[in-house]
Specification:
Layout lengths: L53 E3 L4 E6 L8 E6 L14 E6 L3 E5 L5 E14 L5 E9 H8 L4 E2 L10 E6 L4 E16 L2 E9 L13 E4 L5 E8 L12 E3 L5 E2 L5 E5 L7 E2 L3 E2 L16
Parallel strand pairs: 2-8
Antiparallel strand pairs: 1-2, 1-5, 2-3, 3-7, 4-6, 5-6, 6-7, 9-10, 9-12, 10-11, 10-14, 11-16, 12-13, 13-16, 14-15, 17-18
Amino acid sequence: MKKPLVGACFAVLLLGATAAPATAVSSERPAQADTKPAAKPAKPKAKAVTFAGTVALSNCSGSVVRVPDSQPGDPALVLSNGHCLESGFPAPGEVVLDKPSSRSFTLLDASGGNLGTVKASKVAYGTMTDTDMSLYQLTSTYSDIESKYGIKALELNTARPEQGRAITVASGYWKKLYKCSIDGFAYRLKEGNWTWKDSVRYTPDCKTIGGTSGSPVIDDETGKVVAVNNTGNESGEECTDNNPCEVDENGKVTVREGINYAQQTYGLVPCVAPGNKIDLSREGCTLPKPAGMK
């Protein structure tokens, strides 16, 4: 994993086609056929990805996020990694749910400047099983944050990300934007004791480092969050800490030294109930549940 940083010192890095509109024709003479070729639909312009909505944790990166149904008066949510939790790495199979927290986050503006501090009321969800994700509920609502700081939350995309899409990994900790594309997906990504499912693999351009853990992975075209940055293979070792390996459906292991990864976030959306409450029993929610929960 892209290991969280401790204080000011570095720890070892773990880390459709449309119909043409009709036109009016004069009744005084027949209309002339248009011999010009039809114009190709304009390609949507990429949105300018900035630091607006990102946060810096004491040891990691994160972002203020919302789902499509979130309301202005709902308590805001901050997305980061499970391995960035202040309580330490969750064990394989462990799920943290509704645990009180008073953690602080530095909110950034578009250029990466510090706007102020927002605080958590609890860890709404956290795990390193199947995914590497933490979700904090804040004491502030989205409306509070927008009226005080002029910042809107980043929206979580509801669909699985696509191979080849241009993306930006926005690190609030380092105030740095890493730009690349989605190279593909790892059926299973294994690192030490942890295994993650359907992980996003970056093209080599995104050379993320320690402290970038928890950064939102933003689709450049839509401006929506499609994943959360979490790890990379640093020295070519196989399936060890700091050196995740890919395992396919047949058990074949592939090591890609220097390549970095993220965990998809679209699966989180069905688990967010009205009021931004995490409800793991909701239809379509497939996030891991605490032991004993059906």
